[in-house]
Amino acid sequence: MKYTSTRDSSLSYSAAKCFVQGISAEGGLFVPQNFPSMTLQDISAMAEMSYSQRAYAVLSRFLTDFSPDELEDCIRGAYGKKFDRPDIAPLHELDARTAVLELFHGPTLAFKDVALQILPRFLKYAKAKEGEPCDILILVATSGDTGKAALEGFCDVDGMRIAVFFPNEGVSRMQQLQMTTQEGGNVFVCAVNGNFDDAQSAVKSIFTNNDIKKELAKKNMMFSSANSINWGRLVPQIVYYFSTYCDLINMNKIKAGDEINIVVPTGNFGNILAGYYAKKMGLPIKTLVCASNSNNVLTDFLKTGTYDKNRKFYTTTSPSMDILISSNLERLLYHMSDGDDKLIVDLMNKLSKDGKYTVSNELIAKIQKEFDAGYTAEENVDDTIKYHFDKYHYLCDTHTAVAVKVYDEYVKATGDDIPTVIDSTASPYKFSASVLNAVLAGKAPELNEFEMVDELHNVTGADVPKPIASLKDKEVRFSDVCNKEDMSQMVFKLLNL
């Protein structure tokens, strides 16, 4: 299988090349030139498989330049002892028609682990395939979860270093501690004065800056990415949508061929895009519901066809969704416009220059056949957490609560109550203060972060994950803060280059 760029469809690269390069030279994102198909027979057969076997069934169709042994080695190394569940991404049934896809059972308690435990292994083989002698510098902007997951995945990997930038005061205290206490000799962390969009835009700019790349080359180094702009980050996420469908079959909730809905809390549009890719391959998904928080730029786009980042930015209790520039939407626009790279260049230039763009009525109508969207205002998140804990005795984090509320409103508006899976993207203990306050109806006591964890356990009975409990005794290693304009210089400073 070959891949091309959203901004230059004349290009044709292997998966290995895409993994190593991260982003196309002209700033486009790598996408498959075509989609492999999965028949209902294929999907039914997957129902009898383990998660790792399902991963091989999906990934082998995309990564055709990887040998079976190489791919099996990557999967075996990724989905092993670091996950606290052998099924990796289990389903939790809420009621007869609704289940929660728990994507937080990895080492950093966020859905990013599913991809970022395997990406370093992809890169190891890809680097060898491309004959790339340089060390790779993984450059990451994070809204909270990607940073720690990437740090954990790339920690002490030979031939690779990783620098993570997160918005100062724009992540939860627990997310910050997860990153700033990270062990490893090849990891570096820095806060940025600004929001995630500021950090992400700066990272993209650094990636495409030829002067910086030349300076790195002098040090025998090159850039790559662990954000979902890297195809190697995105493709493993397709797996868990096939896996959850298979689990629904095994739970006798559906039969092979029955349609389901998927609800995804998203900011950068990567997680829900993976669901769209699964549908393109043949997974029977009726509607992909995009759930936004108060930063509802995606909801507005999917409802109107106008993408406008010129709006108030909200810092919310679901910080991983506090994003106004959703990078992966570019990939969807490319596919939905039948590979019109000139259109994509024009739209992205308008976004860069004016902060907004509007697509044609025909294009947005085409998108709306596949996607619905809604948003949850910040004031409704706490009530949703409490309501679902009281009703189901199920504790969800703030991001999942956004999706739950959007789904409830979607059903009221459409009457569409076919079997539905709601993505749960993080452990509630990563946001213990917010979740505890919600469960106690705004009456949480004044406690420090770790006392909040203990109290949340006492109140709800929910087990405290080991990665959270172990943070208490870890030393903060990184305390640097920089402005977005200084990130390129900070990269060289952090790495002593």
Descriptive notes:
By secondary structure, the protein is α/β, with parallel strands linked by helices. The chain has a domain at 91-110 and 232-473: 3-Layer(aba) Sandwich (Rossmann fold), CATH 3.40.50. It contains 22 helices and 16 strands. It has helices at residues 15-21, 40-46, 51-62, 68-78, 112-116, 119-129, 145-154, 173-180, 196-207, 210-218, 231-250, 270-281, 297-304, 329-336, 341-354, 361-368, 378-392, 398-414, 432-439, 449-460, 466-469, 487-494, and strands spanning 3-5, 8-13, 30-32, 91-95, 98-102, 135-141, 160-167, 187-193, 221-225, 260-265, 285-292, 306-308, 356-358, 371-375, 420-424, 481-483. It has a 6-stranded mixed β-sheet with strand order 4-5-15-10-11-14, with helices on both faces. A hairpin with a 2-residue loop joins strand 1 and strand 2. Helix 3 packs across helix 11 (231-250) and helix 17 packs across helix 18. The longest helix has 20 residues, at 231-250.
In round numbers, the mean pLDDT is 95
Q: Please tell me how large the radius of gyration is.
A: 21 Å
How would you sum up the major sheet? 6 strands, mixed
Helical content (DSSP H or I, runs of 4+): 40-55%
Number of E-type strands: 16
Based on the structure given, which CATH architecture of the domain at 91-110 and 232-473 is correct?
A: 3-Layer(aba) Sandwich
Strands of the largest sheet, in order across it? 4-5-15-10-11-14
Name of the CATH first level of the domain at 91-110 and 232-473: Alpha Beta
Count of runs of 4 or more consecutive helical residues: 22
**CATH third-level topology of the domain at 91-110 and 232-473:** Rossmann fold
Q: What class do helices, strands and sheet pairing give?
A: alpha/beta
In one word, what is the shape?
globular
